[in-house]
Structure prediction request, 538 residues.
Amino acid sequence: MAMISIEKVSKTYKGSTRPALDAVSIEIETGDFVFLVGASGSGKSSLLRMMLREDVPSKGSIFVLGENLISIPARRVPYFRRNIGMVFQDFRLLPNKTVAQNVAFCLEVIGKSPSFIAEAVPAVLKLVGLDGKQDRYPNELSGGEQQRVALARAIVNKPQLLLADEPTGNLDPATSQEIVNLLERISAAGTTVVMATHDRGIVDRLKRRVVVLKDGQIVSDSRGVGYETAEAAR
Amino acid sequence: MKLGYIFGEVGQGLKRNISMVVSIVLVTFLSLTFVGTAALLQLQIGQMKNYWYDRAQVAVYLCSSYSPAEACPQGEASADVKTAIEAKLKDSTLAPYVEKYFFLDHNQAYAQFKQEFANNSVTKYVTADQLNETFWVKLKNPADGAIITQSFSGVAGVEEVRDQRTYLDQIFSILNAASLAAVGIASVMLFSAILLISTTIRQSAFSRRRELGIMRLVGASNFYIQLPFVIEGVVAAAIGSILAGGAVLAIVQFFVQGYLAATLPFTNFVGLSTGLVLVPILFAIGVFLAGFASIIAIKRYLRA
Ligand SMILES: Nc1ncnc2c1ncn2[C@@H]1O[C@H](COP(=O)(O)OP(=O)(O)OP(=O)(O)O)[C@@H](O)[C@H]1O
Ligand SMILES: [Mg+2]
Prediction:
């Protein structure tokens, strides 16, 4: 079974008449690296939120990691999420915790042992290039560094699926490229990556699968082409 | 599950909401003290009922020469009247209910009266023939007083039949009303304690909303997320409950035993052992209500 299997998913938020997602169908295989592109408000974040079951569709069916996210019981949701890493558009770091504590926090709260945490946190900080900054607070970091902390937190538990919502938003091209290089390494290690982005340059350079959303609908789904080509292909 | 994390969170929560926590402690303390006092009063009533009902008797007062003419047109009860009453008490209709009875003539009644009012100047103005001759009837079951009352009321030569139990019932119903009032006040206070705990927990959760959001998204179990809040509410209420237990013991020791027992030496008052039984009960009530209120509050907060 595919890692993610979405069929005719629609989502209309309360108080809105236009659906944020409109009969979206998509399959993502294990190990895939997928870009979600589209204008602001086209439904990228909404789709990622459905995959993490932060929200449920109004219509349609969605399977992620073998779980039926429409019928999954509430008490199983936490365990489902432990297999998924999520990088948010707005980082969501805890301002009163240091870099290392921010990363350690998400391991502590799922009951990992102190010895595991003591090993995993420095390792992942090194991987994202934050060694030496583990005792800084988020407000003492640049945007790119905060983004790396968010990424470190998402991957520290070695998730099977990494969902990244504009992980390069507001970063300069060089820093963006570093973040993307990291994502490629994570993908190469076997993690499935779904990344929402506006960054044409990155999409063009990587030549991966590109899914284009427009007004909540998938208007193109192509492999190995750039942003422009994908847009034009519809 | 890391206990260090949980207790760290609880400690932070308690510190952050110190004024709310203090008010939870105070409200639980006061409400449970009321509950405890009401319980003491109920136990006291029970104890006194046992004691006094056992001793309650029905008095059949015979007419004396001082009795009002409406009740005793014939004046002083004759010897025939006394024999008739005694016969009726021994008769098969009444005998099964009567445990024993005895008769006090004027002089015996006077002797008893003097004893009862030993330090009272009223004894100087009362003479033996003013006091009614009386049949004191002790029943097997003190609740059967009405049978005697009905049998002898209005009988010629009987001025009045009085069941002591009806006096006791009055006293006990007043005490009962007092303890019910205490329970009523306590319930209102417990209710406000519950609301206060819910508000505090919600506030505590709100001030930790970033952490909570992240915990949920990285897959912390609901139990793990909710536990610190529940412990927070329970700890605050537990402190209040312990204080209430202490207050109840103090009431027993200093007010009941120290003051009441000294003032009313012939009454059997509740003792410390009774108070000690109440302490764990109050604690359990406080902890249970707080746990319940906290769980509901945090679950509702997280669902919203
Ligand atoms: N919680 C919400 N309640 C109501 N409407 C929402 C909510 N979240 C998103 N929307 C609406 O749904 C639509 C899709 O939003 P979404 O955040 O998925 O877009 P996006 O593609 O991620 O945009 P961006 O590139 O700006 O992040 C928008 O019209 C948005 O206003
Ligand atoms: Mg978005």
